[in-house]
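User: My advisor asked me to double-check a structure prediction for 1,4-dihydroxy-2-naphthoate octaprenyltransferase before group meeting. I don't want to rely on an old file, so could you generate it fresh from this sequence?
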Amino acid sequence: MITNKSSNLLTLTAFLGFIRLPFLALTPVCVAVGVGSAYARTGVLDGVLVFWLLLGALSAHISINAFNEFFDFKSGLDFKTTRTPFSGGSGTLPHNPVLANWAFITATLMLSIAITVGWYVIGLRGWGILPLGLLGLLLVVTYTTWWTYYPLMCLLAPGLGFGIVMVMGIDFALTGHYSIHALFAALPATALSSGILLLNQFPDVAADRSIGRRHYPMTIGYAASAQVYGGLLCVAYGSVILGILCVQLPWSCALTLLSAPLAGYIYRQLRRNTNHLTSLIPLLGMNVALTLITLFLLAVGLFVS
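Assistant: Sure, here is a fresh prediction for 1,4-dihydroxy-2-naphthoate octaprenyltransferase from the sequence you gave:
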C-alpha cells in the first residue's frame, strides 16, 4: 500500500531527477564569475540584485534540464541510452511516465521565472541586455530540438549559455554596460561548459545516432573530439593569461591556473582511452570537478583583486 507520504516522497525524488539537481552546481559558479567580474571593476556589490540574478539563472538552468528530459523521453532516446552518472539523462521519466507532463510544466514555469527576472533587468538597465536575453531564451527552448542536430552548434550551445549569456549578462545587469573585461571573464566558462557536454557525449553516440542527432564524437570520431576538447582547455586557460597580460583581468586571476595540472591529466587520459569508453567514465566526473574548481578560482581571483 502506497501512503500519501511515500507518494509525495516519490514525486519529490522524481522532480529532483528530471531537473538534474547535481548538475545545477555549474550555475552558482558561473554566476559568481559574473558577479566577480562586475565587482572587480566597480567595487560595488548589490546583494538583492545578485539574489534575483541567481534565481533567474537557476530557473533557466532548471528549465533547459526539464525540457531536455521531456523531449528525450518523447523521442524515445531515454529508452536507448546507457546511463552513467554524468551522461544519458536521469532516467526519471522512463520509470515514471506519468510525470512527463509535470516535467514540461516545470520547464515552462521555470522559464517564466527566468523571463520575469530578465524583464526586471531591462527595467533597471535598459534594452542593452535584450540580445543576450533572446539568445538565452532561444537556447533554453530549442537546444534539444534544434542545436543537438548540428555538430558545431551542439558544441557551442552550453558555452554560449553558461559563459557568454550568463557571465556577461550578469556583469551587464550589475554595471549597466558591456566590456572587454567581462568577455575575458566569460571565455573560461564558455570553453569549460562546452567541454563538459563534449565529453559527456562520448558514451551516447549510438543512442544519439538512432534519433538523428549529430555531434562531434559521432561525426569526427573520438580521437578528433579529444583534440577539440584540448582546444577548449587552451581557450579556457589562454583567455585568463591573455586577459591578465592585456590588463583586462587582475593578476589575482592567475589563481585559475592552479587547476591546469588536473586539466592536463584529463586530456592525456582522454587521448589514451578514446577506444575504451568504459575507462572514460571517471574522466567525466573529473571534468565536471575541473570546471567547478577552475571557475571558482576565477571568481575568487576577481573578488580579491
